[in-house]
Amino acid sequence: MAFEFSVISSDLLLETPIFAVRNDCVTMPEGTTSYRQVVEHFGGAAIIAYDKATESIALVEQYRHSVARRLLEVPAGLIDNAHASAYECAQWELREEIGAAAKTWNVLIDLMTSPGFCDEAVRVFFATDLSRVPRPHVTEEEADAEIVWIPLKQAVQLILEGKIYNAISVSAILAAYYALENRCELSEPTSAFAVQPTRLASRRREQGYDDMKQSGVLVLPEKKKAIVSDS
Question: How confident is residue 227, by pLDDT bands cut at 50, 70 and 90?
């Protein structure tokens, strides 16, 4: 029978507008406990925007400061509105990032991006029957972003050539190519997102924030508990 891990204690170490970090004391199978640091995330929505006529997808080339380079990525964003679903956030992101709307939506895949330390999960949608819509004003990195349309097969080749690095985009592009080649039946866009993280979003909602990114800045709790290593 599989061991049931349980949390003995949990302390919030850091709170920022878009993520938080906590320190959990967790029971281990040999009867000991160990500390695990967890990055709490809102979760995200990503989109394969597919143009049937050209068999192309929309990619966004934008600067990512954490890796100090511009990356080619599928349109994506946080599920950071307290009253919006992943599907609703995806519709907004499609308009905001590439100035498009889609008549046909399906769920392509759900994925956990870095489960070794982060609870982030992303729902990837497959959007077709596209039309142009006004793109809202964007700022900061998004103001410098470039929208490119690339044949799906070429996007797969770019992955194999090491030119698309973003893990969500790699997963989304390969899944889209497989789904189209094999005529896979995809789920409805409102189907349950079982692995969507909830802890950070629930705390922000309890604090009364609708736009959950606006919940303050870089808060270090007054009680700073030392992180105990496994060694």
Answer: very low
